[in-house]
Amino acid sequence: MIDSAVRIADLKHHAGAIVTVRGWVTHVRSSGKVAFVVARDGSGTLQAVLVKSQVPVASWDAFATLTQETSIELVGEVRADARQPGGFELGVQALTVIGTSPVDYPVQPKEHGVDFLLDNRHFWLRTPRQTAIMRVRSELEQAVHDFFYARDFVRCDTPILTAAIGERAGLFSTEYFEEGTAYLAQTGQLYGEALAASLGNIYTFGPTFRAEKSKTRRHLTEFWMIEPEMAWYDQDDNMNLQEAFVRYLVQRVLERRGEELKVLERDTSKLDCVGEPFVRLDYGDAVALAQSKGSDVKWGEDLGAPDEALIVDHHQRPVFVVNYPKEAKAFYMKENPADPRTVRCADLLAPEGRGEIIGGSQREDDYDKILRRLTEERLPVAAYGWYLDLRKYGTFTHSGFGLGLERTIAWICGIEHIREVIPFPRMMGRLHP
RNA sequence: UGGGGUGUAGCUCAAUGGCAGAGCGCUCGACUGUUAAUCGAGUGGUUGGAGGUUCGACUCCUCCCGCCCCAGCCA
C-alpha cells in the first residue's frame, strides 16, 4: 500500500492520527529505554520516538540495526511537540527496515572537502543544503516558463546535435553517420532566430555544451540556458525585457522559496536591489570606470572578471554594459549606427561579483554586413547558408539574449561555486557520477 | 594553458629534521526525552608516487600525479 503513506511535510494535517511514513534515517539517538530516529523523505525531516515498553520487540530490535541512510517504514501517532522544528513528532508503534545501509556511508553531518563531496555527489544531494538548492532551481525553471507564457512567447526546442555553427569557443564532437562530425550545441540562438521569424516571440530552454578548458567557479562544460528571441525588438526593447525577467525571477524565489533561502543562510537584503532600475552603462564609460579604480583595461578589449567586479561593486545593483567593440563580440551582433566601431549588445552583470548572467544583442539584419563579418571571422560561410537566408528572405529587426541558469541560481542563492547548483555537474576532469 | 596553494587514519585536520597524533566516524558498554545527545572503553596509517640530501625525512631538494583558488574563454 505504497500510496497510503503520508509525506512528512503533510503531517501537520494528521495531528492525532495513526499514519505510515517512509523515508531514510539521518540520525539515531538512544537513551537506554527511549530511542529516537530522525528520518527524511524529501518533503521534510521527522523525529520518531520509540519507547521500549510500548513497541513490539521486532521494532525495538530493528532500531538497534539502524544506520545512516537505512530506508525505513514507520507507523505511529502524529503528536504536536514544540521541541521539533516542524512542530510534530511521531510516537512509533512499529518500525520496519526496508533497505539496510552499510556503516561506511561516506557523507557524514559535518565538514567535508569539495573533491570528496563531488565524488559522492549522488549522496551529497541528500543533504539539506543541496535539497534547498535543487528546490530553488526547480522554482526558477517554473518561473521562467510562467514569465514567458504570460507574455505569449512560444517555447521552442532547438537541436543538441548540430553542424559547426554558433559561438567561437570549444566544441564537443562526435561521429555522425555519413555526415561527418556533429557538434554538441553551444547555443540555440541561431535556430531561435529562424523560429522568431516564424512565431514572433520565442524562447528556448535547454542544455548547452562548451569544451572550454576553464576552471573557475563560474564555468561548467554542460549548463542550461534560456534564450529568448524576439521579432521586431530593438536592443532597448531587449534590455527592458531582460530587466523585467530577472526582476521576476528574483522576486519569485523570494516569495516562494524563503525557507530554502534560510537553509542556505542567504542574506536576502542583498537581492532588494533588483527592485530599482538596472544601471545601463556604455562600454566606454565602463572601461573608464574600471580604469579609475585601478584596472589597466583598454578600450577595445573585453572586460575581464576583475573589471566586471569593480563596475558592479560601484553601483551595487545589476548593470548592463552596452555597446561593446565589434572585435570583442560575436559576428551576429548588429553594428551600432551611432558608432560603427561598436555593436548593439549588452552583458548583464549580476551583483556581488557574480559576473555575467546574460549576454544579449540586437542581431545584424543586413545581409551584406553579416556576410562580411562571417568572412572576417573566418567562419565556414557555407554552413551558415540557412542562417543567411533569414536576412535574404524578409529580413527583420530582432533581438535576443541568453541567460545562464546556473549562474543565476548561484547568485540568487549566494552559492560560491556553480558546481553546487546543478545535480550532476560536468566540468573539466569530472564526468562521474 | 599560465600564476599561487595543497596532498598525513573512512572524513576534517595537527605534528622545530628526532617515538605519526586529535576530533568525528565505526565497535562494545551505560543511560526513559535526546536534538550533529552524553559518558566509559576499544578500533584505525604504504604520511599521493619515484628518486635524492641526512646518523635520522610527514618535514629539506628534484621530477611526476591529484585536487583547490585566480586568470583567459564565456553564460
What keyword list fits this structure?
30% helix, RNA-binding, elongated, OB fold (Dihydrolipoamide Acetyltransferase, E2P), eight-stranded mixed β-sheet, single chain, alpha+beta, five-stranded mixed β-barrel, BirA Bifunctional Protein, domain 2, 12 helices, 2 domains, 433 residues
Describe this structure in words.
With 433 residues, this protein is an alpha+beta fold. It folds into two domains: 2-99, Beta Barrel (OB fold (Dihydrolipoamide Acetyltransferase, E2P)); 121-421, 2-Layer Sandwich (BirA Bifunctional Protein, domain 2). The chain has helices spanning 57-65, 114-119, 121-124, 128-150, 189-199, 235-256, 258-263, 283-292, 305-315, 367-376, 385-392, 405-413; strands at 18-30, 34-40, 45-51, 71-80, 88-99, 154-155, 161-162, 173-175, 181-184, 201-209, 222-231, 279-282, 319-322, 345-350, 355-362, 398-404. The strands form three sheets. An eight-stranded mixed β-sheet has the order 6-10-11-16-15-14-13-12. A five-stranded mixed β-barrel has the order 1-2-3-5-4. Strands 7-9-8 form a three-stranded antiparallel β-sheet, with no helix packed on it. Helix 4 (128-150) crosses helix 6 (235-256), helix 4 (128-150) packs across helix 12 and helix 8 (283-292) packs across helix 9 (305-315). The protein is elongated. The model has no long low-confidence stretch (mean pLDDT 93).
